[in-house]
């Protein structure tokens, strides 16, 4: 098993360092004592999820799985935004091929993170709307800093979250709360998110949040990793399999939906109303 010897650990750390130099959008470091990896999203300015960032997250998760990571903390380099969700400018008047790849990579990220064999924590150190909430939801535990927002606001933008994301929300906060939250596209303040169980703990600083995240990961120190991951797979597997079966069909519907003029009009309005940067006419 990886990390059993100092040599293995050193090898993995070097490997990750080398890897991180190749990935400017996701910085990965490994705590040599605990073996926990921290993946920091660093796409300026709001970690909006375009194809390049999604691809790098997907590769990172693949490498962590391959190297039998002991635990992952996912966080943001920004002190204001964890991730602003899908890059709305890339969804506007898009190239169909790029959109296809983008959606398919988003599905891969969900499958790899929601289904990872190692334990995962999101340190939500900034706003986390839509795809930002998706990243946090696919982790096993969420520690959030005060005075930010989190939630699935897709309904406000003019579409429904896909089934697998609805499953993730339902599995976290229960069906009743999920129905209220998703149909209204609610964005919750940190304290509200804590009350409904969308986040597990609140922290006052990033350092405190990292400490809480490590405490969560340390809970598994004495649990055999294969027993832990088999149990996680039993709990999450059906939702992942449902997406795997429907992956290509969903990509087709998504491309049709996003390239439709009605969606493009409502996206244009949303950008003009909500984002500082405007569309070039
Ligand atoms: C089966 C078929 C199904 C089809 C249906 C499709 C379903 C898709 C479903 C789910 C997956 C996920 C979807 C999404 O993620 S959609 C994206 C939704 N995101 C948002 O609504 C967030 C919008 N942004 C904000 O609310 C705020 O920007 C903020 C709270 C994140 C941060 O606020 P603040 O700190 O005040 O920063 P600014 O508003 O000033 O923004 C800074 C900077 O960043 C730009 N920006 C913000 N968000 C985005 C974004 N999502 N994409 C691209 N760019 C973004 C903003 O314009 C500013 O730019 P600048 O002026 O040039 O600095």
Automatic annotation (TrEMBL):
Q: A single GO CC term, please?
A: mitochondrial matrix
Task: Name its GO BP terms in alphabetical order.
Answer: fatty acid beta-oxidation
What pathway is this protein said to act in by its record? Lipid metabolism; fatty acid beta-oxidation
Q: What is the role of the protein in this entry?
A: Key enzyme of fatty acid beta-oxidation. Able to isomerize both 3-cis (3Z) and 3-trans (3E) double bonds into the 2-trans (2E) form in a range of enoyl-CoA species, with a preference for (3Z)-enoyl-CoAs over (3E)-enoyl-CoAs. The catalytic efficiency of this enzyme is not affected by the fatty acyl chain length.
Q: Which domain of life is it from?
A: Eukaryota
Gene Ontology molecular function: delta(3)-delta(2)-enoyl-CoA isomerase activity
Q: What is the lineage of its organism?
A: Eukaryota, Metazoa, Ecdysozoa, Arthropoda, Hexapoda
The UniProt subunit note reads as follows: Homotrimer.
Q: What is this protein called?
A: Enoyl-CoA delta isomerase 1, mitochondrial
Q: Which InterPro entries match?
A: ClpP/crotonase-like_dom_sf, Enoyl-CoA_hydra/iso
Q: Where in the cell is it found?
A: Mitochondrion matrix
Instruction: Show the catalytic activity.
Output: (2E)-tetradecenoyl-CoA = (3Z)-tetradecenoyl-CoA; (3Z)-dodecenoyl-CoA = (2E)-dodecenoyl-CoA; (3Z)-octenoyl-CoA = (2E)-octenoyl-CoA; (3Z)-decenoyl-CoA = (2E)-decenoyl-CoA
The record's annotation in Gene3D superfamilies points to: 2-enoyl-CoA Hydratase, Chain A, domain 1, 6.10.250.170
The UniProt entry, under Pfam families, shows:
ECH_1
Q: Which SUPFAM superfamilies match?
A: ClpP/crotonase
Which keywords accompany this UniProt record?
Acetylation, Fatty acid metabolism, Isomerase, Lipid metabolism, Mitochondrion, Transit peptide
Q: What is its main location?
A: mitochondrion
């Amino acid at each position: 098993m990886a990390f059993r010897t100092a040599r293995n650990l050193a090898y993995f750390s070097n490997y990750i360092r080398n890897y991180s130099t190749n990935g400017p959008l996701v910085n990965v470091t490994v705590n040599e004592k605990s073996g926990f990896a921290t993946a920091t999203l660093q796409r300026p300015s709001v970690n909006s999820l375009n194809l390049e960032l999604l691809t790098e997250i997907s590769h990172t998760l693949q490498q962590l799985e391959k190297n039998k990571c002991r635990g992952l903390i996912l966080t943001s380099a920004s002190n204001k935004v964890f991730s602003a969700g899908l890059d709305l400018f890339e969804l506007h008047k898009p190239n169909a091929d790029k959109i296809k790849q983008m959606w398919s990579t988003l599905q891969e990220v969900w499958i790899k993170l929601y289904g990872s064999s190692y334990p995962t924590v999101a340190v939500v150190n900034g706003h986390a709307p839509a795809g930002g909430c998706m990243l946090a939801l696919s982790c096993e535990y969420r520690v959030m800093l005060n005075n930010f927002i989190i939630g699935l606001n897709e309904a406000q933008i003019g579409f429904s979250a896909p089934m697998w994301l609805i499953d993730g929300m339902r599995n976290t906060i229960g069906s009743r709360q999920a129905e209220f939250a998703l149909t209204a596209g609610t964005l919750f303040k940190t304290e509200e998110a804590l009350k409904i169980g969308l986040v597990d703990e609140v922290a006052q600083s990033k350092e405190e949040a990292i400490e809480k995240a490590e405490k969560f990961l340390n809970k598994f120190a004495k649990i055999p990793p294969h027993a832990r991951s088999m149990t996680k797979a039993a709990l999450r597997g059906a939702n992942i399999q449902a997406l795997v079966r429907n992956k290509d069909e969903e990509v087709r519907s998504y491309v049709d939906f996003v390239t439709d003029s009605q969606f493009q009009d409502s996206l244009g309005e949303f950008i003009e109303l909500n984002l500082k940067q405007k569309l070039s006419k």
